[in-house]
Amino acid sequence: MKLMKCIVGLGNPGLKYQKTRHNVGFMVIDQLAKRNKWTVSKHKFQSHCTIETVGNEQVILLKPQTYMNLSGESVKAVLDFYKLTPEQLLVIYDDLDLPVGKERLRQSGGHGGHNGIRSIIDQLGTKTFNRIRVGIDRPEFDVTVTDYVLGKFSKEQHLAIAESIDRSVAACEAWFNRSFLEVMNDFN
Description:
Blueprint lengths: L2 E7 L14 H12 L6 E3 L2 E8 L2 E8 L6 H12 L6 E7 L7 E6 L6 H10 L3 E8 L9 H5 L8 H18 L4 H8 L1
Parallel strand pairs: 1-4, 1-5, 5-7
Antiparallel strand pairs: 2-3, 3-4, 6-7
Keywords: Cytoplasm, Hydrolase, RNA-binding, tRNA-binding
Organism: Amphibacillus marinus
EC number: 3.1.1.29
């Protein structure tokens, strides 16, 4: 059997959420697919997905359609079906604690209040899986966190988030051929 890796971008389904800060994981998956001329259109595992061959392994791109709070259900279904370990998983998601335009790669950690990551940790029973945290900054003034993450990036943030998405895509592509630790050392 070929080696496999699963790259998951977190977000919420539907046009209403399409360009929101909380959907930056979806944006990375979409850009990764676009750069490689792939289409993430299969409906399986409560997600939109595709399975592509890169070198000697298969890569699954996954956009859970369960809404953020239940993302772990989709991720667990894929890992169980293909008998993948958490080490074969990479999850991309938005992070309030990083400024827009910054990203951090980690191999484990808590959920940091992120409900999608909380769901994945709960479903998998481990905090150890690869992650790319994409900075979206914290809200200013009297904006609630919910309203902020479900809001769209400001005009001032567009260039920085586009560059961050591109760097995240490059990190995913680097992971096709190298260990995540090596990728982490290069991109952090």
